[in-house]
Amino acid sequence: MIKEKPCKGQNKALGHGCGIMTKVENRIHGLGKMCGCYSDWLLNSENGKIKMAKSIIQVQKPRVEFERFEKDYNDSNDLKKAKTVTKVVVHSYIRKRDKGKPCISCGCDWNDTFEAGHHYKSETFETLKYNLDNINGQCFYCNNRLEGNFEYYALNLPKRIGLERYNELVRLASIDKHFEKVWNVENLKEIRNQVKLLKCN
Question: Which pLDDT belongs to residue 36?
Fold first, then answer.
């Protein structure tokens, strides 16, 4: 049963934000559930199509640029650059691995704007930043607008990776705060090489 909720759109001047109670819930390009007035605005108005195009470009930009700088970064001794390219390699692998699977949080159908979303946030759990069980395909709306949609992520993750691996991830998260992970160029390169081997299999 779908609960009636008021439309949260505020920009009536642009044509969305009806403010009424509605049962209409649409999923558009991984942006999650939204009132019919907003999805209609995104798909049918000039300003909405521009906003949609910008969102898609923002999501896809790192993938498009990656091949251009990968070789230079692999040979670099710059730690910041090494972290950047490792993130792109890992996230690229996650999107390929989880292609066709629904969003780990809300369950919406896969599409090519899906992102690599962390269960335990990389900003807080440094040791799990590149843990492949901790990162799964997630729609743009859950990953960004709902800040990971942690509650439903936690509910669905054991089904995705299995209870044993999930329990191990929880254990690693519980001890993360007791250790400071010191990343260096070499261990980041090792992570990238491991992921590339998985891509080939």
Answer: 66
